[in-house]
Design brief:
Chain A is built from 17 helices and ten strands. By secondary structure, chain A is an alpha/beta fold. In chain A, the strands form two sheets. In chain A, strands 1, 2, 3, 4, 7, 8 and 9 form a seven-stranded mixed β-sheet that branches. In chain A, helix 2 (50-60) runs antiparallel to helix 14, helix 9 (198-208) packs across helix 10 and helix 16 runs antiparallel to helix 17. Chain B contains 13 helices and no strands. The chains are: A alpha/beta, B mainly alpha. Chains A and B meet through helix 1, helix 3, helix 11 and helix 12 of A and helix 2, helix 5, helix 6 and helix 12 of B. Chain B: It is a multi-pass membrane protein.
Chain lengths: 437, 275
C-alpha cells in the first residue's frame, strides 16, 4: 500500500509544480490548425457503440486521434460532470450535449464558439435549418456546437385496430380527439398523456408554433403561457377531463404493457420512438404504421421535434480547429452517420442524412412500411425558432410536478404551466441570469 | 407465546419486505424481453435466464465481466487495506497514550458524520488538480479510509484486548508490531470482520465517486456500468434486459461475502456475550 501512495504523492506534487510553472494555454485562441500535430482529442459521449464510430476516424486520421470517454446520459450525470470538469479547468475537448442543455452551458461560458472556425461556418448549409438554430441561438455568426441528431415527430398508430374498428387515421387534432372517443368506445385509449416527461409536450407546443424561451443578447424571456402553448394544454386538458387518454407514466413497464396489450392505440413521438415501440411491445410486430402528426389546421404540414443533440467543443480546448474537423466528420460524413444510425438509432441533422441507404428500407416491425420517408418529410417541416432556456432541468421538474397534479385532478395543465413560468423566472434570477418579466 | 407470535410476525413481514425486490429481480432476469412487460412480475414465464446471462456476458466484448472484475478489485482491495488501517489506528488510539489522542479520535469521529457524497466533489477537484482523475487510484484511494471502522476498532480494542495481555507480551519480548498482529488483531477479529463487511458493501455500492471521477468505461465498477446502461435504455431498449440480469449478477458477490463471513461475525458476537 505504501508504495502506490507514495508514488501518487510524488506524482501529485510534480503535477502541481508543472501546472504552477507552465503558462496556461490561451483559451480564447482563434480556430487555427495546430502545426504541432499530431494531437489527441478527448470526446465524451454516451452514444452506445460510439467507440466503433471513432475507430473509423482514428484509422483514417493518424495525426488527429480521438479518445472516447463514456458515462451515463447527459441528465443522468454527464452534464454535471462537464460542469465539474469546467470548474476544475480540465473539460474534454468535445462533448455530446442535447439541444435543450446547450443554453445552460452557454450561460456558464463553457462552450467554444465554433463560429470562429471557417470549416464549420462553411458547413452550415449541410444542416437542416432549424437544427442550426438549435446550436446558434439565433446569433448570426455563432455555433455553440455542431448539430448531431434530430427527433422529428410523427404519429405511430395501430393500423390493425384502426382498420378493424373502421376508424379513420386522424390528420388533424380535431379528428384525433374524435377518434379518441371511438377508441374509448372500442375499449382502449388513443394514447397516454405524458405526465412526467415534459419533452413530448414541448414537442407538441413546438409544432403549435410556441417558443418557450428567447434571448436577446444576454437577457432571457420565458414564455410557457403563450397562446400556442395554452392551446396545446387546453386541448389535452379536455381529453383528460373526458378520460379519453390514459395517464400511465411514460417509460415504465406498465406503459410498455399498455402498448403490448393493445390498450394504447397511438403515440405521437419522435423518430427514435420507432425503436421504443418495437422493443417495448414486441408482441405487436407488424401491426403498427406511421403517419404524419395531426395538424392544427386541415391540410397543414408542420411537425414538432422531440430530442436531438449536438457535438460541442468546450472552452479551454487547445485544439478547437481539429475538434471542429472531427465534429463535422462525425455529423456529416456518410460512413459516420450510417454507423450512428445502425449502432444507436441516431437520426441525422443533415439535409442529405435522410437519404442514407439505412433509411431507405421498409421496416419489418411496421409491416414493411418505409417509415423513415415520413420522418424525412417531417424533419424538413419542423417549425424553426424554438429556443430552450438555460435552466431546463428545473423547468422540466416544475412543469412535470404540475402535470402530475393536473392528472390527479388538482389544478389544470394551464395552471401547471403558469406555475412553471413563475418558478422558471425565479430560478433564472437566483442564478443571476438577467430575465425580462 | 403471544409475544413470540408477534415477534415472528414482525420478522416475517420484514423478511418478505426485504426479499421481495430480490425475488422480483431474479424472476425478471429469467424472462425474455417480450415476457418481461406482458407477464406477472412476481412469477416465472418463459425461462430464458441462460440466454440472458450469455447476452450480458458477451455484450460489447464482455465489458460487464470487466466491470465486475473492477468492482472486486476496488472493493476487496479497499476493504482489506481499509480494515487493516482501521484496526491499527483504532488499536493505537485505544492502547497508546500520546498527546492529541482525543483530538485525533474526535476528528475521526467527525469524519463519520460527513457523508461520502459531500466529499466526492472536493475529491474530484483535488484529483483533477493532480491530473489523476479517470484513473484506478482516483476511486481506490478515497475508498481505503473508513472513519467508522476506526471508531469501531477503537471501541472494540478497548473492550476486548486486556492491557495485561499486552504487558505480558512485551515482557516475553514481543515487539509492538508482533503484539498487534499475533495477539490484538486476533482478539479483535469479530470487529475486523464487521469492519470488512461494512467497507465491502460501502465500496461495492459506492456510486457517486466513480460517477464523478471516471470517464473511461474500462475502469467502471459494476454499479456505474449498470447505471450507464440504464440511462441509455431509451436509445437502446435491449439494454433493459441486460440491466436486470446484470443487477442480479452484481449482488451475487455480496451474498457470497456475507454467507462466508457471517459465521465469523456471529461467532465473535457470541464470544463477547458469553464472556
Amino acid at each position: 500500500m505504501k508504495t502506490p501512495l507514495r508514488t501518487l504523492g510524488v506524482a501529485l506534487s510534480c503535477t502541481l509544480l508543472i501546472t504552477a510553472c507552465s503558462t496556461p494555454s490561451d483559451s480564447t485562441a482563434a480556430c487555427a490548425p495546430d502545426d504541432a500535430e499530431p494531437v489527441t482529442l478527448t470526446y465524451t459521449s454516451w452514444i452506445p457503440g460510439i467507440e466503433e464510430v471513432v475507430q473509423v476516424w482514428n484509422a483514417a486520421n493518424p495525426r488527429i486521434q480521438v479518445k472516447v470517454q463514456t458515462g451515463p446520459n447527459g441528465n443522468g450525470g454527464t452534464y454535471q460532470n462537464f460542469f465539474n470538469q469546467l470548474r476544475a479547468g480540465n473539460p474534454p475537448d468535445l462533448g455530446q450535449i442535447e439541444y435543450d442543455a446547450l443554453p445552460s452551458f452557454r450561460v456558464q461560458d463553457g462552450l467554444f464558439d465554433l463560429g470562429a472556425c471557417e470549416n464549420v461556418t462553411a458547413a452550415r448549409g449541410q444542416f437542416i435549418d432549424w437544427t442550426w438554430d438549435q446550436v446558434s441561438f439565433g446569433e448570426s455568426d455563432a455555433a455553440y456546437g455542431v448539430p448531431q441528431d434530430s427527433g422529428p415527430m410523427a404519429l405511430f398508430y395501430r393500423k390493425d385496430l384502426f382498420d378493424q374498428h373502421r376508424i379513420a387515421v386522424p390528420t388533424t387534432w380535431d379528428e384525433y380527439a374524435a377518434a379518441a372517443e371511438k377508441v374509448k368506445a372500442a375499449g382502449g385509449y388513443i394514447t397516454n398523456f405524458s405526465q412526467s416527461d415534459v419533452n413530448q409536450f414541448a414537442g407538441l407546443s413546438w409544432q403549435a408554433g410556441a417558443s418557450w424561451f428567447a434571448s436577446d443578447g444576454d437577457t432571457w424571456s420565458v414564455d410557457l403561457t403563450g397562446p400556442e402553448t395554452t392551446r396545446v394544454a387546453d386541448y389535452w386538458q379536455r381529453l383528460l377531463d373526458r378520460d379519453l387518454v390514459s395517464t400511465v407514466p411514460p417509460w415504465t413497464t406498465e406503459w410498455d404493457n399498455a402498448y403490448n396489450s393493445g390498450s394504447a392505440w397511438t403515440w405521437v413521438s419522435a423518430v427514435w420512438g420507432a425503436n421504443s415501440i418495437s422493443s417495448g411491445a414486441p408482441g405487436t410486430a407488424g401491426r403498427w404504421a406511421v403517419a404524419p402528426m395531426p395538424q392544427w389546421s386541415a391540410g397543414g404540414t408542420v411537425a414538432g421535434n422531440w430530442g436531438g443533440s449536438s457535438t460541442a467543443v468546450f472552452k479551454g480546448s487547445a485544439h478547437p480547429y481539429e475538434a471542429a474537423r472531427f465534429a463535422l466528420w462525425l455529423n456529416t460524413s456518410e460512413e459516420a452517420l450510417t454507423l450512428l444510425a445502425e449502432k444507436a438509432n441516431l437520426y441525422p441533422a443533415t439535409k442529405t442524412g435522410a437519404s442514407l441507404p439505412v433509411y431507405a428500407q421498409g421496416v419489418e416491425f411496421y409491416g414493411g412500411q418505409k417509415i423513415y420517408e415520413v420522418f424525412a418529410r417531417a424533419a424538413t417541416q419542423v417549425a424553426p425558432g424554438f429556443t430552450w432556456g438555460p435552466t431546463m432541468t428545473s423547468t422540466y421538474a416544475n412543469t412535470s410536478d404540475g402535470f402530475k397534479n393536473a392528472v390527479s385532478g388538482r389544478g389544470t395543465l394551464a395552471d401547471a404551466l403558469a406555475a412553471a413560468q413563475r418558478s422558471t423566472i425565479d430560478t433564472l434570477k437566483s442564478q443571476s441570469i438577467p430575465v425580462k418579466e | 407465546m403471544r409475544a413470540r407470535i408477534a415477534a415472528m410476525t414482525v420478522l416475517g413481514v420484514c423478511t418478505v419486505y426485504f426479499l421481495t425486490p430480490i425475488w422480483w429481480l431474479f424472476v425478471s432476469a429469467t424472462k425474455t424481453r417480450a415476457g418481461f412487460t406482458s407477464t406477472s412480475p412476481l412469477w416465472f414465464a418463459d425461462f430464458a435466464l441462460i440466454g440472458n446471462l450469455r447476452e450480458v456476458l458477451t455484450y460489447r466484448d464482455g465489458i460487464f465481466l470487466r466491470w465486475l472484475g473492477n468492482s472486486v478489485l476496488y472493493t476487496a482491495g479497499a476493504a482489506l487495506i481499509g480494515t487493516l488501517l482501521a484496526a491499527m489506528c483504532g488499536y493505537a488510539l485505544a492502547k497508546y497514550r500520546f498527546r492529541g489522542r482525543e483530538l485525533i479520535f474526535n476528528v475521526v469521529l467527525g469524519g463519520v458524520l460527513v457523508p461520502a457524497t459531500a466529499l466526492a466533489l472536493p475529491l474530484f477537484l483535488i484529483f483533477s488538480r493532480a491530473g489523476a482523475t479517470n484513473t484506478f487510484w482516483s476511486v481506490f484511494l478515497p475508498s481505503v479510509v473508513s472513519p467508522f471502522g476506526v471508531y469501531l476498532a477503537r471501541i472494540y480494542a478497548a473492550a476486548s484486548v486486556p492491557d495485561d495481555l499486552i504487558e505480558a507480551a512485551r515482557i516475553d519480548g514481543a515487539g509492538e508490531v508482533r503484539t498487534f498482529v499475533t495477539i490484538a488483531a486476533r482478539l479483535m477479529t469479530p470487529a475486523l470482520v464487521t469492519i470488512f463487511l461494512f467497507q465491502f458493501t460501502a465500496v461495492w455500492n459506492n456510486f457517486l465517486l466513480p460517477l464523478i471521477m471516471l470517464g473511461d468505461e474500462r475502469l467502471f465498477p459494476v454499479t456505474l456500468g449498470l447505471y450507464t446502461w440504464n440511462t441509455q435504455v431509451n436509445q437502446v431498449p435491449q439494454l433493459r434486459g441486460l440491466v436486470l440480469t446484470g443487477a442480479l449478477l452484481s449482488v451475487v458477490p455480496l451474498v457470497i461475502a456475507f454467507l462466508l463471513l457471517q459465521r465469523f461475525w456471529r461467532n465473535g458476537l457470541g464470544t463477547g456475550a458469553v464472556k
